Amino acid sequence: xxxxxxxxxxxxxxxxxxxxxxxxxxxxxxxxxxxxxxxxxxxxxxxxxxxxxxxxxxxxxxxxxxxxxxxxxxxxxxxxxxxxxxxxxxxxxxxxxxxxxxxxxxxxxxxxxxxxxxxxxxxxxxxxxxxxxxxxxxxxxxxxxxxxxxxxxxxxxxxxxxxxxxxxxxxxxxxxxxxxxxxxxxxxxxxxxxxxxxxxxxxxxxxxxxxxxxxxxxxxxxxxxxxxxxxxxxxxxxxxxxxxxxxxxxxxxxxxxxxxxxxxxxxxxxxxxxx
Length: 275
Known about the structure:
Elements: H1 3-13, E1 15-18, H2 24-46, E2 54-58, E3 63-69, H3 85-95, E4 99-109, E5 117-121, E6 132-137, E7 148-150, H4 161-169, E8 176-177, E9 185-189, E10 194-196, E11 205-214, H5 215-220, H6 226-242, E12 268-269
Helix pairs in contact: 1-3
């Protein structure tokens, strides 16, 4: 997809889907890393060993891992996604200047989980800045089976998530289901209202998420200490030196990448109380 079309659609609609950004060989490696990481996490859970930043749900049948935060500390090779030239060219074009990732996580949707993700914005604070979430799909996502659903142009709306939900319920608004294949990338603004239903069928859906902001935003935002910014800049410098499309096994992370903690802005959900 041409970069100018990606930027235009993102600005107009608040989201854009880009087909087949990752090569099959890269997808295969990422899937393998996921399988290893999930198996290790489940083993620790069953053994009663402590771990942070890994969310596990226990069902009647078995435990399953559904989210991993601070992803690079568990598997540094995931960081090489940030060295994928095509992916980063879209990210940089949308922002228009040097960028850094705010966070990185792995979300796993499984049919054992009866929950979905209700309508929400990733950031409750309204912003005109191009701050956005990038979802890198490692598995197919099928509409009506737990795939992402978005409300186009909602990133420009001052209406609350509750108000937009009510408008959807009476057909004043329409949402769009996004069917994606492994290797696709979906980018959405942090103010774009979106949801996803329960994962149906036997397949799992693994998605790696990044949030990106301009370097200048981090420098001007007191929530992000200078030492945190410097470590993130060192990470990107190391990855840019790789310039690899095939993910060789030589990624170097800065020491103590996650030692300095930051608290990003909260999301906005619709919480209504029965009268």
